[in-house]
Fold this protein.
Amino acid sequence: MVEKELDIEAVRRAAAGYFREPFTFGDVPRHWSTHVYAVYAGGKIYYLRILPEDASFAVEVHAHNLLRDSGVTVPRVLHWEHKNSEVGLSLMIEAEIPGASVEQEPPGEHLEQILREAGRQIARAHQIPVDGFGFLDRRYYTELKGEADTFAAFYLAPLEEDIRLLKHYPFTADEIHRMNRLLQNGYERLGDVPPRLAHGDFDLPHIFHHCGRLSGLIDWGEMRGAPLLYDLATFRLEDKTPDGAGYRAVVDGYGEIYPLKADDLYNIELLALWQGVHRLRMIDRPMNHEYLFPLVKSHLGRITG
């Protein structure tokens, strides 16, 4: 998560370079990968994003354009700069996706159809190939290249340390042994899958709806090259809908574009476990002990074998 805030006056001056009319800033939830500011101008809401490090939004803008061309409803990029003179960092301004998130304002009877469409849209995103796995390498402006060249470097290389760090959580020795065995099996099952463009944080807060319909998928700052089922695994781990109804709807929609077999569904379970275990390596993060640990423990109980 981005911890250090920028000089708000410098951010205000940067925004003034684009918004010629009076504007105000609003609050948004803290983000992991970028500084994000809501900007209210002319009766509309915009989102100003600034990278926390000396890099460029260029590849992310390129990915947004590819997603829109593929029929995925993502925020429209209105303006971006490699390096803004006021803040000294890369800057991007996005249009608002109308409505509210499925988590913030549950859509009631429309939930299933909205999540089915979200599944279809994620499947369309997965039609976009990436050269390599992991976060998009920001050194490349017009190529989608992952930071890891191979699936082994992405999945297997951190696994030994991830498993070792599980001792900081109240798992039993048998549970840790079983997770290691399952995740080693996951590598064997998924090793030949080519990388595709993944949202990277696909869950209820990032699925927006308006007037009973999906209005878009937001917050693509965690994009990466990943196995085809990666986003479904994220949703599976994080799904808060009763009895997993949301996950089933997403999978049904996804399957309309990429038909899923029983092996695929099992691989989703293993990928979800891998994601949870990998995220738990941040042992100094209170949220991991209070929120993520119970999720991983519960998910482990769902996996057979």
Q: What stands out?
A: The mean pLDDT is 95. The chain has two domains: 8-95, 100-302.
